[in-house]
């Protein structure tokens, strides 16, 4: 057998699997995976072929296989596999390319390092019920979201009695805006649903066509693809129409997905001539007014000798997700009885690439199915089941996170912005991260918008933002000025312009990269803002930035019951004096009595630590410095202070931009004159380390401190 023949490995794996030799099947599929995609990371999307190979044939029927690759943000490597022809297992070695060049191997002529591609990862999954409890998937699945984000279509199990056919129904839930709560579930009966199974809804971009699958009477096979339409988004759906024998066969045709432009229809089919137990097909048409052409199998690159079902097409048409057929064996290399896989294509006219497994982070031990995605490509949904008992059915929500740390230094900053600018207009770039995390083939303003979300303060969807906070951002090198939009209407901020400011254009043509609102923002208010980048000229070129939102704190209040401990304390001048109000008059003026203050013994390091009764979102710290009569001459008060905070008292984070503590006057009635913003960080512990005081003596101290917390706006608006 040719060790570079991927299909041979796949076929032999299927044979091994059919006779129960799982170890041999998995070994062959590892070879299949190595030939096709050279161990692509399971959590990453596939790209174009990552390497080209050269083979050197050796005596005794052995060979060396060389390949080169450059993973994103990593060192280029040479892979060398050694083994006997036709054997499953080959020894694999990976050598950095620069090391190979030092040895002058001379074996890499013709080996091309692949072009880079954008990458993304998945965040931590959360149970959808804990996030949006009104969307109940305990007895069904999410099928799709409308393109305007105002409808979600689900299926529910209406009847599943022994000896009777199951009855799945299509349902819809609606909301007035993307920020509004979802309404109750509405069954699409009796017009759309039948007494049989009606599942797998897929809606068109204009919201006027809904495709779904059903095994109702009068079809061409066990399951057929149907379509229902409506005149407008506010009208009810009409009676469904069978798509006819061009699409449907005498077998099962189900799980259809219509593309955003309405020109492609993907579905799973068990018709004859496939590669396994359920294949993915696509039917195409020239315009939405033309009939569908005969469906075409996606071929052995996507379909295997096993089964591909439960498919989902991303809204840009460049990503295709699917699950194993749970009624047959999964594709070898899977983590469970049913895994979710993903394939992509570079453009709508390019072929689909080799699928990759989404990995053990998402694929659990039993059944993983019904992959779905939000229209904006930022959220992934999928379902799991441990048994057929509905109590084990769960729907999960997972953020899709583009990798914007282009230089791999662990930070997202102006260096990454410079890299994006350097790749402007290019394809096959790690900077191609927009409008979706997997890119669209060119680096342009779409990618700039995505990157800017990591280069602004406050960040996207920030909460508990200070009402007197300042907006800030990094500006690309080409921008000579910026326009700033700020308001409470997302529609106004999104559509406003210089010619139509809509009362949200708050600053035009500014060169500074900060904006300080002239008036204090309202408490517990959601604001939307946008920064456009301007290239000056007779007709300015304006690159519109993303619309971001943040919510201000509901209210600010002083924290009570604070406990203080210190590195040392002079007799009668303990740390507790800084939080017990001792020495303060009714106007918050402090005395000059040293017994009302904390005063250290001088043993370095001098620190004082505060503990609250729970975690708070810290808003601000007020400080009354050491204020004895001798202070003007001795300078015991803190001057340079390092502030750290923690939620558990173990892992500490430094507070940035701590100002110098002001020197107290040594007079009675002294009020707090050092106020330090915390920006809403969560903390239960705060530690102040006095690195320098206002004098030369080793002792230092403080009179009083007061912490203010910002009540979470989210907590007051369930």
Note the topology.
Elements: H1 6-18, H2 22-37, E1 53-58, E2 62-69, E3 77-84, E4 91-96, H3 97-102, E5 120-122, E6 126-127, H4 128-131, E7 140-145, E8 151-159, E9 167-174, E10 186-187, E11 198-203, E12 209-214, E13 224-229, E14 241-242, E15 253-258, E16 264-269, E17 279-284, E18 296-297, E19 308-313, E20 319-324, E21 340-344, E22 356-357, E23 367-373, E24 379-385, E25 393-402, H5 414-422, H6 445-452, E26 456-457, E27 462-465, E28 471-473, E29 481-487, H7 490-495, E30 505-510, E31 514-515, E32 526-535, E33 541-543, E34 548-552, E35 555-558, E36 563-566, E37 598-599, E38 606-625, H8 631-634, E39 638-646, E40 653-654, E41 674-693, E42 701-711, H9 713-716
Parallel strand pairs: 27-34
Antiparallel strand pairs: 1-2, 2-3, 3-4, 5-25, 6-25, 7-8, 8-9, 9-10, 11-12, 12-13, 13-14, 15-16, 16-17, 17-18, 19-20, 20-21, 21-22, 23-24, 24-25, 26-28, 28-31, 29-30, 29-32, 32-33, 32-34, 35-42, 36-38, 37-42, 38-41, 38-42, 39-40, 39-41
Helix pairs in contact: 1-2
């Amino acid at each position: 057998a040719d060790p570079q023949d991927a299909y041979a490995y796949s076929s032999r794996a299927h044979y091994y699997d059919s006779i129960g030799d799982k170890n041999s099947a998995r070994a062959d599929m590892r070879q299949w995976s190595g030939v096709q995609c050279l161990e692509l990371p399971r959590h990453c999307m596939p790209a174009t072929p990552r390497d080209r190979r050269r083979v050197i044939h050796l005596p005794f029927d052995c060979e060396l296989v060389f390949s080169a690759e450059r993973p994103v943000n990593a060192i280029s490597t040479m892979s060398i596999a050694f083994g006997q022809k036709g054997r499953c297992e080959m020894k694999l070695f990976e050598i950095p390319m620069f090391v190979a060049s030092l040895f002058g191997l001379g074996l890499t002529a013709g080996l091309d390092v692949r072009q880079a591609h954008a990458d993304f990862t998945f965040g931590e999954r959360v149970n959808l019920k804990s996030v949006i409890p009104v969307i109940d998937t305990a007895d069904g699945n999410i099928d799709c979201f409308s393109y305007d984000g105002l409808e979600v279509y689900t299926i529910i199990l209406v009847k599943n009695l022994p000896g009777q056919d199951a009855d799945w129904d299509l349902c819809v839930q609606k909301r007035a805006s993307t920020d509004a709560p979802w309404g109750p579930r509405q069954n699409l009966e009796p017009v759309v649903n039948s007494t049989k199974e009606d599942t797998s809804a897929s809606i068109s971009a204009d919201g006027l066509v809904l495709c779904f699958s059903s095994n109702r009477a009068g079809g061409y096979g066990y399951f057929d693809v149907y379509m229902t339409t409506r005149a407008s988004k506010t009208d009810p759906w009409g009676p469904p129409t069978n798509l006819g024998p061009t699409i449907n066969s005498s077998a099962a045709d189900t799980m259809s997905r219509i593309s955003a432009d309405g020109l492609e229809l993907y579905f799973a089919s068990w018709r004859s001539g496939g590669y396994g137990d359920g294949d993915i097909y696509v039917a195409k048409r020239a315009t939405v007014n033309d009939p569908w052409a005969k469906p075409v199998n996606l071929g052995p690159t996507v379909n295997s000798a096993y089964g591909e079902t439960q498919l989902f097409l991303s809204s840009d048409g460049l990503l295709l997700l699917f699950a194993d057929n749970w009624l047959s064996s999964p594709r070898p290399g899977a983590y469970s009885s049913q895994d979710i896989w993903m394939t992509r294509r570079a453009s709508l006219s390019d072929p689909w690439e080799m699928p990759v497994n989404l990995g053990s982070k998402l694929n659990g031990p039993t059944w993983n199915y019904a992959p779905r995605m939000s229209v904006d490509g930022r959220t992934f949904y999928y379902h799991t089941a441990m048994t057929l008992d509905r109590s084990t059915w769960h729907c999960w929500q997972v953020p899709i996170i583009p990798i914007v740390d282009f230089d791999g230094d662990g930070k997202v900053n102006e260096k990454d912005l410079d890299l994006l600018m350097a790749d402007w207009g290019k394809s096959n770039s790690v900077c191609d991260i927009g409008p979706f995390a997997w890119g669209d083939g060119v680096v342009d303003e779409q990618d700039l918008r995505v990157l800017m979300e990591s280069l602004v303060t406050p960040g996207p969807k920030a909460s508990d933002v200070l009402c007197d906070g300042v907006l800030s951002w990094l500006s690309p090198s080409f921008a000579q000025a910026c326009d700033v939009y700020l308001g409470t209407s997302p529609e106004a901020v999104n559509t406003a312009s210089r010619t139509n400011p809509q009362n949200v254009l708050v600053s035009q043509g500014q060169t500074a990269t900060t904006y300080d609102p002239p008036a204090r923002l309202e408490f517990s208010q959601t604001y939307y803002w946008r920064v456009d980048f301007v290239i000056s000229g007779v007709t300015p070129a304006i690159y519109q930035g993303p619309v971001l939102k943040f919510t201000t704190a509901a209210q600010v209040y002083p924290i009570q019951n604070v406990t203080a401990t210190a590195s040392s304390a002079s007799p009668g001048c303990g740390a507790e004096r800084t939080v017990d109000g001792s020495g303060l008059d009714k106007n918050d003026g402090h005395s000059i009595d040293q017994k009302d203050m904390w005063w250290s013994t001088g043993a370095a390091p001098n620190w004082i630590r505060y503990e609250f009764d729970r975690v708070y979102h810290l808003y601000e710290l007020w400080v009354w410095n050491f204020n004895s009569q001798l202070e003007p001459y001795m300078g015991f008060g803190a001057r340079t202070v390092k502030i750290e905070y923690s939620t558990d008292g173990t892992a500490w984070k430094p507070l940035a931009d701590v100002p110098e503590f002001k020197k107290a006057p040594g007079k009675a009635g002294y009020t707090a004159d050092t106020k330090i913003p915390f920006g809403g960080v969560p903390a239960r512990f705060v530690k102040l380390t006095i690195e320098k005081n206002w004098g030369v003596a080793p002792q230092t101290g403080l009179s009083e401190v007061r912490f203010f917390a910002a009540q979470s706006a989210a907590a007051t608006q369930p």
